[in-house]
Amino acid sequence: MHEKYNQQIHRLNYLTSELDGLYHQASLRIGLSDSAMRILYAIYDNEDGCLLHTICQQSGISKQTVNSALRKLEKEGVLYLVPYQGKHKKVLLTEMGKTYLERTAAKIYAAESKAFATWTEAEFEAYLHLTTKFAESFRAQVQAMGSEAAE
Questions:
Q1: In the predicted model, what is the mean pLDDT of residues 82-92?
Q2: pLDDT tens, 18-71?
Q3: Distance between the two ends of the chain, CA-based, in angstroms?
């Protein structure tokens, strides 16, 4: 183990957990489950509809959980699914869903924008660069775990 990084890893894990908790609190304050918020956020971020595959990829939640939350949002009249290029499905908002999105995911997006507005452009670029670099490196390490277990 690389003890050299223990404190930094603990701090990173704490901050990641704290951010997850803040997103959970935000979801609760606007009356959404975490999975519904992540789905609506992905739709908001992709604007005019969103592929089901993209929602799974961007939300980080399983396809089964996404499908379950989508069915609930569909029953509530927020969105609907349409076939799209073969086996793919596209998620679209109803008129009510567009209003609902502005009262939910758009508020979280606005809060993030206000938080980032307190940063300089250089800080923001450094954050994006380092977060991307860590994600790419960690992804490679996680993928290597699967091959090591098979050996």
A1: 91
A2: 999 999 999 999 999 999 999 999 999 988 789 999 999 999 899 999 999 999
A3: 20
List CB contacts of 12: < 8 A, sequence separation 6 or more: none
CB neighbour list of residue 50: distance below 8 Å, 6 or more residues apart: 42, 43, 90, 91
Token duo for residue 117: 């507005």
Q: What is the secondary structure of the chain as a DSSP string?
A: --GGGHHHHHHHHHHHHHHHHHHHHHHHHTT--HHHHHHHHHHHHH-S-EEHHHHHHHH---HHHHHHHHHHHHHTTSEEEEEETTTEEEEEE-HHHHHHHHHTHHHHHHHHHHHHTTS-HHHHHHHHHHHHHHHHHHHHHHHHHHHHHH-
Structure token digits, residue 140: 């490679």
**73, 39 Cβ separation under 8 angstroms:** yes
